[in-house]
């Protein structure tokens, strides 16, 4: 027994020395390369656990204070990463897209949305920039194209209000907001007249949302395992819809949705996208048009529910919109343009609770920033939070105050960027604006509300999630 104990002790010492030498060597190499201050954390996992489960915003603020307010290094989601912070960091990043940086998706996202690479015999290789052009080139997300869908957005929203909201004393906002936004996304992206068909898979989309920024360990019980199973279920349903859409196109049925465009688009050699690839791309669009929009709707209900004075102003604006319309007419583009105060309220919602904490890039070449060198291939993490709550730019930064947006020069450029910036600004910005304002118009006209709990815990990593779904009491006007 003593020999075994001695062996275990020696093995432990050797392991500790090995880890110490590994860390020392790594620190020495880092110093030699003039990398930014910071820590790469533990071997293999780096600082991923603290980043994901300790709140990404707190993770960033703590290291800005400890290392540098401009830039620091870390290792998260399996990648050596620098976090570029503040207004100057935003400007530097968005001014150098495709010069110094390109888009990067964490490995968990790559595995969830890139299954066609393993299953398709000869997939069309479309770059991430080309994927964005799929949305931009036919103008699907431009205001003039979205106008066609605004009436349907209003109609779907009204129907969901009647089905899930009216006649109830209490509802949970977050699940209902997700059902609504998924129904809207299905109608817009898939062109389906049965949006509830995909809305029944809400729980699967929730699992994917959690799995997109997770450790890609695929065994039962893990977040990524559940996300993978959910992706398979959604992909199966989407392939059925794609087959139906192809049949409709073959008969000459007119279509004007993104799914139809993906089906008919070809590469320079005339090849069409494989169905598996189309399914993955559509699934990515549905996720993007689902969780972030639902989050904005939910936290609108929270912040406005806490401020009767703001609720009164939003209600007055929406009543003015309605009074100028004929009875029974659906919302149109002119109506949306009148909702200036309501949109300022939503800006403030997104400033205090960003629907998405941040995104990743990859360094295309070695570059220097703030006196430090970042090697080619390292990842760059950008987050809105390094300026959103900075009192240097926003007076009383913790206070919910929509009037601050009435003066467009009230804060400097590159300080408030809820949809990103530069060439990769979110192409769905206008779609999100229409969807959320349509929700606001319908909910404030029907209800007053009060919060069941003003201190509900917000969980989630990259996307904020109310732990109990954010229950509210509905009150008549």
TrEMBL record:
Main location: membrane
Cited InterPro entries: Cyt_P450, Cyt_P450_CS, Cyt_P450_E_grp-I, Cyt_P450_sf
Gene3D superfamilies the UniProt entry points to: Cytochrome P450
Keyword annotations of the record: Heme, Iron, Membrane, Metal-binding, Monooxygenase, Oxidoreductase, Transmembrane, Transmembrane helix
Entry's localization field: Membrane
Keyword Translocase set for record: no
Membrane-topology descriptor: Single-pass membrane protein
GO terms for MF: heme binding; iron ion binding; monooxygenase activity; oxidoreductase activity, acting on paired donors, with incorporation or reduction of molecular oxygen
Top-rank taxon: Eukaryota
GO CC, one annotated term: membrane
Residues annotated as binding heme: 426
Transmembrane spans: none
Cofactors named for this entry: heme
PROSITE patterns: CYTOCHROME_P450
Pfam families found in the cross-reference section: p450
Family assignment from sequence similarity: Belongs to the cytochrome P450 family.
Protein name, per record: Cytochrome P450
Protein species of origin: Manihot esculenta
């Amino acid at each position: 027994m003593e020999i075994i104990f001695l062996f275990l002790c020696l093995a432990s010492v050797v392991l500790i020395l090995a880890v110490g030498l590994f860390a020392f060597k790594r620190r020495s190499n880092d110093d030699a390369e003039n990398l930014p201050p910071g820590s790469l954390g533990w071997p293999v996992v780096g600082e991923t656990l603290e980043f994901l489960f300790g709140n990404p915003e707190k993770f960033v603020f703590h290291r800005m204070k400890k290392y540098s307010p401009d830039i620091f290094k870390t290792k998260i989601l399996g990648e050596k990463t620098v976090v570029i912070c503040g207004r100057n960091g935003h400007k530097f990043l968005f001014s150098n897209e495709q010069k110094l940086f390109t888009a990067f998706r964490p490995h968990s996202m790559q595995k969830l949305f890139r299954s066609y690479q393993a299953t398709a015999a000869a997939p069309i290789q479309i770059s991430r920039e080309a994927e964005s052009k799929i949305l931009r080139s036919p103008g699907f997300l431009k205001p003039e194209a979205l106008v066609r869908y605004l009436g349907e957005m209003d109609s779907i929203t009204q129907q969901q209000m009647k089905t899930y909201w009216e006649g109830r004393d209490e509802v949970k906002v977050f699940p209902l907001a997700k059902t609504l936004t998924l129904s809207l996304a299905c109608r817009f992206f898939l062109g389906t007249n049965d949006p509830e068909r995909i809305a029944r898979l809400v729980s699967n989309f929730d699992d994917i949302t959690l799995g997109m920024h997770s450790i890609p360990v695929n065994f039962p019980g893990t977040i990524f395992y559940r996300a993978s199973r959910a992706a398979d279920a959604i992909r199966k349903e989407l392939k059925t819809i794609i087959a139906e859409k192809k049949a409709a196109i073959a008969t000459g049925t007119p279509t004007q949705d993104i799914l139809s465009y993906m089906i008919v688009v070809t590469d320079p050699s005339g090849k069409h996208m494989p169905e598996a690839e189309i399914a993955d791309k559509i699934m990515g669009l549905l996720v993007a048009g689902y969780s972030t929009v639902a989050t904005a709707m939910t936290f609108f209900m929270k912040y406005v529910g806490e401020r009767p004075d703001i609720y009164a102003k939003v209600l007055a604006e929406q009543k003015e919109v309605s009074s100028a319309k004929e009875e029974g007419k659906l919302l149109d583009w002119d109506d949306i343009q009148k909702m200036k105060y309501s949109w300022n309220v939503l800006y403030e919602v997104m400033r205090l609770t960003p629907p998405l904490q941040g995104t990743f890039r990859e360094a295309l070449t070695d570059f220097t920033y703030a006196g430090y060198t970042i090697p080619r291939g390292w990842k760059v993490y950008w987050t809105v939070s390094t300026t959103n709550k900075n009192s240097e730019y926003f007076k009383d930064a913790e206070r919910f105050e929509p009037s601050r947006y009435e003066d467009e020069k009230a804060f400097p450029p590159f300080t408030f960027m809820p949809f990103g910036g530069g060439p990769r600004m979110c192409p769905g910005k206008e779609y999100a604006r229409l969807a959320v304002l349509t929700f606001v118009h319908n909910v404030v006209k029907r209800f007053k509300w009060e919060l069941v709990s003003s201190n509900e815990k917000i969980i989630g990593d990259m996307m904020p999630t109310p732990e109990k779904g954010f229950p509210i009491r509905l009150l008549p006007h």
